[in-house]
Amino acid sequence: xxxxxxxxxxxxxxxxxxxxxxxxxxxxxxxxxxxxxxxxxxxxxxxxxxxxxxxxxxxxxxxxxxxxxxxxxxxxxxxxxxxxxxxxxxxxxxxxxxxxxxxxxxxxxxxxxxxxxxxxxxxxxxxxxxxxxxxxxxxxxxxxxxxxxxxxxxxxxxxxxxxxxxxxxxxxxxxxxxxxxxxxxxxxxxxxxxxxxxxxxxxxxxxxxxxxxxxxxxxxxxxxxxxxxxxxxxxxxxxxxxxxxxxxxxxxxxxxxxxxxxxxxxxxxxxxxxxxxxxxxxxxxxxxxxxxxxxxxxxxxxxxxxxxxxxxxxxxxxxxxxxxxxxxxxxxxxxxxxxxxxxxxxxxxxxxxxxxxxxxxxxxxxxxxxxxxxxx
Amino acid sequence: xxxxxxxxxxxxxxxxxxxxxxxxxxxxxxxxxxxxxxxxxxxxxxxxxxxxxxxxxxxxxxxxxxxxxxxxxxxxxxxxxxxxxxxxxxxxxxxxxxxxxxxxxxxxxxxxxxxxxxxxxxxxxxxxxxxxxxxxxxxxxxxxxxxxxxxxxxxxxxxxxxxxxxxxxxxxxxxxxxxxxxxxxxxxxxxxxxxxxxxxxxxxxxxxxxxxxxxxxxxxxxxxxxxxxxxxxxxxxxxxxxxxxxxxxxxxxxxxxxxxxxxxxxxxxxxxxxxxxxxxxxxxxxxxxxxxxxxxxxxxxxxxxxxxxxxxxxxxxxxxxxxxxxxxxxxxxxxxxxxxxxxxxxxxxxxxxxxxxxxxxxxxxxxxxxxxxxxxxxxxxxxxxxxxxxxxxxxxxxxxxxxxxxxxxxxxxxxxxxxxxxxxxxxxxxxxxxxxxx
Amino acid sequence: xxxxxxxxxxxxxxxxxxxxxxxxxxxxxxxxxxxxxxxxxxxxxxxxxxxxxxxxxxxxxxxxxxxxxxxxxxxxxxxxxxxxxxxxxxxxxxxxxxxxxxxxxxxxxxxxxxxxxxxxxxxxxxxxxxxxxxxxxxxxxxxxxxxxxxxxxxxxxxxxxxxxxxxxxxxxxxxxxxxxxxxxxxxxxxxxxxxxxxxxxxxxxxxxxxxxxxxxxxxxxxxxxxxxxxxxxxxxxxxxxxxxxxxxxxxxxxxxxxxxxxxxxxxxxxxxxxxxxxxxxxxxxxxxxxxxxxxxxxxxxxxxxxxxxxxxxxxxxxxxxxxxxxxxxxxxxxxxxxxxxxxxxxxxxxxxxxxxxxxxxxxxxxxxxxxxxxxxxxxxxxxxxxxxxxxxxxxxxxxxxxxxxxxxxxxxxxxxxxxxxxxxxxxxxxxxxxxxxxxxxxxxxxxxxxxxxxxxxxxxxxxxxxxxxxxxxxxxxxxxxxxxxxxxxxxxxxxxxxxxxxxxxxxxxxxxxxxxxxxxxxxxxxxxxxxxxxxxxxxxxxxxxxxxxxxxxxxxxxxxxxxxxxxxxxxxxxxxxxxxxxxxxxxxxxxxx
Lengths: 376, 438, 593
Hints:
heterotrimer; B: 438 residues; alpha/beta; Rossmann fold; 3 domains; seven-stranded mixed beta sheet; 18 strands; 39% helix; elongated; C: 593 residues; mainly alpha; three-stranded antiparallel beta sheet; two-stranded antiparallel ribbon
């Protein structure tokens, strides 16, 4: 049992005594409050000032037209839709297991990579353009199968033995699994990028509600929204969905009520895999390229999105994904340009994380969360 | 302990006296031009002693694993061919240099500063290594391998470092040289082409990534483009592992540049080519040799058509009789494949420059053994003038650049000189020397 | 029932073999010789999974709460069944590949090379090759099974002999250098042409390591006795004489290493020491205070770049003035305390707002901080300050009166001195009242808080001290390499340091050293396996977490805590507590929650 440390009331050796005394003085100031308030004021000021200065710029001075802002928003939303779909996988698993499946980004990569070889073969045989719907359906099924397989294997081999271990243990394992999966795929298929074929029906732009948008971007948005609605329905109404919610509430009681917890957990990983597989195909169709590194950055962005939105909540993950996508596209030009910083987009990842830190500091449960992130 | 040192010193002096006498007796006939002028005991950095039956050891610091392995392996292959060719024929039996076989010691530089340090340390620790051909990547050399080897008086000569920083007068290590072209010239000719009558542009935007390679090219392009009267409307930097460049392109498109210059490596380069098609349909796209690859053409598909790629014009020597008639067949026979990358010829030349310098400065001790003074070797390499290499005539400057006049060609996709391209001749070529460009 | 389990174990091993073949660990290494002309690395990879399958199949089972050992005969049968299944699964894959043609698989799986196909067919037709494959696998598996079931007095020395001999085979580029350095003859030990061990050498190495293991086993009972009494006793630090001797020997070896091993290996050891320093720092944050920091590279970069700026390094950028916007001209030894203060202050500053977050959120935020620093040092915005992507050069060589430390051997001593200092500080902290507060906080934060421990403040303290030590690691790294580029400060550094702390054992200082040696030293020495470095890394982290969460050299106190926790907890613990690998892939019994 640790003794009380306030005020250094216990005698001890010299060094700790000094440290404790120093802590005592340190303690008297409400440091955290002070830092938070200062931080809040500084950040708010910077954002407002930057935005005003940017919007005040002429185009010749490096400012942007209304069309540019509209395009940034569309581009950010399309990217955000993919983040949202990956984020759902993080969020579902977290809801059930209270564990961050760091390797989920690699599940996404596995699906995209696995489907590539089919898509490539179909493109070469002409099947992809002859009946794009059927071909894409098969390609998506393959991606889903590979992603689900990877996710379930991961659960069985790496996470299940650790189910009751201290919380950080599975997280560390997941980081190991990330490295392993990435390098395994590199070993299988090599480090080079592969060009992912796209059926010609998806090439080009389309105008929706007066906004010009790439067909793939539209596809991404539509499929993502459908997936989220289906998922919401699934979790809310089906029997399995109810079991999932029960396990998320209280694993032990759920198991006492006759729910097969192992099965529910596997199903959760599998659903995460399904979404990751679909996201993998959507991502590959929009960027037309797959590589073994492709999962890491979108994975981290999606992971951030899940936390930003409020991890464990489906709506939160969706919101978080779109917010991150928009932040990457709109944030740097809107806020940083005004300060005359060169190459604003080189700072976009730093920018996203800054926003994440701020959200967690001021609203620890995330945008739609319950505030449970704060432990003390 | 002290006694031993004295004893060693005494023995050394005695041996040297005998050697000197032997040389004097010979009348310097076999001693080469260096003999008599260099005293290995006192000269800075000393000499490499090669015993009568020992090989002359040449180091190689090249990347032979990871994503860039083909870049380094290609050059290692070229070095083996250079050793094969010491007897003036590619016969798959190594030739000899001054009656000694040449042995290659390869260290992996991993295309990074840390790798450059490990490789540099390993090579510097081996006191029998005469000179090192490498590195593959500029980041492994810059302030790392060049310094580690230079501190020991070992000359590092690269066949593929192109970063301008390496031979910048402020930054150059006196023991660093290269037969690869300096990207100042490639960037400058890219700018000249953009300004010239083919494109007639006055505005350009650039995209770099986090590698020193693109930094050097973009820097040179921007400086020369502006000096030529053009305007840089925007420059961005991206991460080479990113995939979504649409917002970056959209923001650059605001200023409507006529040219977009993005000398980035294949993966990101391909993505930008694709995404720019939509966002900047009117801009002329120019990439550099880091993107000039069959993978780009394959992965970008029709989107690549119309993209310009600058590259050292290899056709000048590729049509060369020796290169196409002897070197390439020998390469194919020895390694069972077409050359893996583009810098094999440069490394072949680098090795031959070193061999020529060794022949010039090595001191024949008369008993079949050689002494190669390090400082003199470095000086001889830097004094190379008008050397007839595969890649052209090689003349080394004080700053270490040995490819002083570089021909850069601009190729229009799909006519790129790579597998899968239609291999059209360069649309524009120019030759410039380093003092003509910024 | 049992047979089904054996087959399942074997089938899994077969799939592992297929995996090894597909990532290129078999086909790419047919010419890397470990022993003589016969034992290649590829051969080892081909048969190792079957061997392990046999070993695992023959492991004692826990049935009805009791441990049941297998007899030799039973073990051989179990192992044979498992290993034959492993061989069979792999042989099926080979036959299948041959049927549809390896040239049609190669465009997808690049490593299905002709040399792989030739190797797994043993130069025969595919069918004959498959039969040989199954036979060899079975033999390897039976060996493993018999070894597992043999009494410890045989099992331990044989295992030691095999492991050490294979390790010597691996270190074929390193040990000869050390022998040369000591002017010892090497040709009897290593084959002069293809570099592997000679059979004579292998026999000598095996005999010596078996002998040492045997001696150790005989003294072992005593050592374990004293160890368990010290665990049971009040202080976890009492040392048995044997342990003391081992520790003294280890310290002596650490001090003598560069002189014995020469500059090439010293260079790798210097990197090991830098990472050990980082490990000691992160260990305070993760191991002592229980805060998962995934962005430790933040302090690493902060230390490296602030040292560079304080000591007058120049920019590596061509075409701009070489002096950075801020440039000091301090001596290394004056700059170091300033660097550490900056890092501690930065730790407090970034820690204060985020440290009240729950553990996994904190992990994410620190990951973000690490990413941010990577982005910032490489951004064009900060080129005038830190050189952007081209970085900085000309970093001080930490000279004392003209005696410079850039040379690998000297640098090792410099780094060793700092490691010793940090280790001492860390050890004092752990045993102090602060350390006890950390322990209380780590084990149960709410209770600790209720007991009056100001958890936020102790977290901050851990963060600041850990950050200061991390920045010291960064500063030394800068001195070592002499040139900084953002490529050296990627997120992978954070993961590497975390990996070595975990592998060694959370909270254990000797563990950090062992972890650094294994995860940084071995890859540095085994350059030919560079491409597989992070694959092995990931596998090692997962394996350690699943099979041996207390690490290789566990912290005594910590492992006791872990054990108590486990006893109270669940099945997952049982395998670990027994000190045994679980009977099969997962826990010994299915977990039903």
